[in-house]
Amino acid sequence: MSRIKKLDPSLVNKIAAGEVIERPASVVKELIENSIDAGARRIDVALEEGGAKLIRVTDDGCGIPADDMPMAVAAHATSKIYSVDDLFHIRSLGFRGEALASIAAVSHLRICSRPAEQFEAYEIIAAEGQVPPPKACAAPLGTTIEVRNLFYNVPARRKFLRQAPTEVSHATEQLARLSLAHPDIAFTLSHNGRPARNLPATPDRRTRIADFYGAELARCLLTTARQERELGIEALFAPPDQSRASAKWQYLFLNGRYIVDRRVGYAVREAFRGLVEHDRYPVVFVFLTAEPDQFDVNVHPTKIEVRWRDAGLVQSQVLAVLRETLLSYDLTPALRAPAGGGEGLSIEASSHQQRARQALADYLKAIDPTQARLRFQPPPFETRAVRPSIVSTMDRRPAMREPFPEPPRAESVPTTPQPVGTGPGSPAATPAERFAGSDVRTEIPSFEGRDELRGSVIQVHNTYLVAQTDEGIIIVDQHALHERILYEKFREQLLAGPLESQRLLIPETLEVSPQQAQAAEQHRELLGRLGIDLSVFGPKALAVQAFPALLPDVEISTFVADLLDKLAEGEETQSEEAHLHEALDMMACKAAVKAGDPLSTEEMQALLAQRHLVQKSSSCPHGRPTTLQLSTRDLEKQFKRV
Ligand code: ADP
Ligand code: MG
Questions:
Q1: Fewest C-beta atoms under 10 Å: which of 9, 114, 363, 477?
Q2: Could you give the residue range(s) of every CATH 3.30.565.10 domain in the chain?
Q3: Residue nearest atom 7 of ligand 1, based on CA coordinates
Q4: Is the CB of 94 under 6 A from ligand 1?
Q5: Quick check: CB of 284 below 6 Å from ligand 1?
Q6: 73: CA distance to ligand 2 center in Å?
Q7: What is the pLDDT of residue 616?
Q8: Residue with the nearest Cα to atom 21 of ligand 1?
């Protein structure tokens, strides 16, 4: 071993800089934070060559007095805290006194500043660890900081810098985070002299979001704001059908600082459970405010994580507020007409919506033209002007509604064969029996008389049901809707006690992995509530002794294996409640009618009659929509009636 020696201060600074300054975007973040802490109303950021050549941040904040300038670039020097006690009352973004020292250690740094009480501006230029005394220069009120040749003396880091556009996009992301948290400050960003972003100050978060992500997304955001004991929660989020394939669109802020938090992330996921598909991420912006003594921000060099005093409470409060807000909205995705009124229906739609739309188009094409005219005949001109909707036509012609007309009989309309082999005991249960099993008919004989649905129901592609409502047309995904109804029913039954279980005459065995075996052991009670009884059958196998009676047609060993996988997956993060939901999801999915199952008229009516049970969220447990609606107004727009 060599002798122990004290490190040279410039090397210490370089090592420290490595923690805070990773790339130009880190410099941008630190400098903007300083400007915000200085009370700036306007902050301009200029980059050259992706920031590798130059990063300049100019603000109109309080400035740095000339006497303090050398101290500003000294390590562990700050004007923001003075004592340990202050550490727990931090209201500024910075407090570690490290940023400028770190930046000075790995670049050529120039600071030029003029506080209001100073007659002249002063500048210092720091390089190679030397800081000559400040010199007078010409500059307006505020501070300009220039960082040139980043990592000129750390070749390993310099080599890792990416192409300019990549570095600019990282810097832009930092700007997004800071500017979303501070919409009342104006920001600009330019690259190589060309303007890249212009963000005027605004009192409205939505406007700032629109600046970054477009007016369309900003417009559809739902909002909520609540003060929950020590925690202020403000959230803007897009409806579930606007979810994305990446979690990048989830922003969390605490007291104006962008943070990443596992518990809040979990709360967001839980709030949207059943409303977005499992591999999609809702777009959310959550702004939390809390007294500084409720959390510790001094746990990460870039302050991106905090340690909460009561993380569980924060998680549950965020979850409750989001979930409550979500459920208070009607989330049925609407098929919207294109803004320009072009051909056909078009929006940035998920493939699911596109399929449904295609089914509707096929259906409309398939209708016998004479029938179509009869059914969709517009009212005379003068009445149309008074109440322009299809419903009004139907209202004036009650003969059309009673009895409900059969679906149009044009050749190309898919036929709906009557199910055969009825009787609950028959081995291959038909969809009719499944509905009978969930006692659809005894609850509501048909939807006749329920005033929201009118006219006949039509099945297209043995997958979608098309029906008329007071407002227009709905298109229902039969599997998604049935699944959702069953989910609610199973849940209700569970509240009353364990699900009905059937002993198997011959237990079914399955091979399991160590994780699956452990999940079976650990969740024995939960499985019992679901009506599943497992026993150990050799070192690597389990035997299913009893299985839920509600799932007569399900491949037992596959279902159990899948369920154990699911239970093993979210082991640490998920609560027992979340596991139970997941299991119910799976059961509902397996028991529901499938896409491609033909349904009789009675079955369709019976299924739709139960829509009200699940109308609140209008998505299946997997988060796909169950129902799309097309209003008469949209139809009229499409057919250029208005
Ligand atoms: P910290 O922000 O943690 O205090 P920094 O190294 O980022 O540490 O900054 C050191 C000090 O320099 C700050 O405490 C502040 O007093 C001063 N300072 C830095 N940037 C600015 C600015 N743009 N306007 C006014 N003062 C500034
Ligand atoms: Mg700072």
A1: 9
A2: 9-197
A3: 99
A4: yes
A5: no
A6: 10
A7: 55
A8: 34
Helical ranges in 377-523 per DSSP H? 381-386, 390-396, 431-437, 440-443, 478-496, 514-522
Hey, which CATH number is domain 424-642, 3.30.450.40, 3.50.50.60, 3.30.1370.100, 3.40.50.720?
3.30.1370.100
HEC string for 105-117: HCCEEEEEEECCC
**pLDDT at position 116:** 93
Architecture of domain 207-328: 2-Layer Sandwich (3.30)
Residue 445 banded pLDDT, cuts 50, 70, 90: very low
- Kindly report the protein residue whose alpha carbon is nearest to atom 20 of ligand 1: 34
Ligand 1 atom nearest residue 99's Cα:
6
- CB environment 109-125: b (16+ within 10 A), e (fewer): bbbbbbbeebeebbbbb
Instruction: Give 234-265 pLDDT, tens digit per residue.
Output: 999 998 888 887 787 899 999 999 999 999 99
Q: Is 80's C-beta closer than 6 angstroms to any atom of ligand 1?
A: yes
Q: What's residue 332's pLDDT?
A: 62
Q: Is the CB of 98 under 6 A from ligand 1?
A: yes
Q: Is the CB of 474 under 6 A from ligand 1?
A: no
Q: What is the mean pLDDT of the chain?
A: 78
Which atom from ligand 1 is nearest to the alpha carbon of 143? 23
Segments of the chain assigned to CATH 3.30.1370.100: 424-642
Strand order of the β-sheet with 231-237 is 222-228, 231-237, 284-290, 250-254, 257-258
CATH number of 9-197: 3.30.565.10
Digit-coded pLDDT (tens) for 29-77? 999 999 999 999 999 999 999 999 999 999 999 999 999 999 999 888 8
Concatenate the DSSP letters of all residues of 510-535 into one string: EE--HHHHHHHHHTHHHHHHTT-EEE
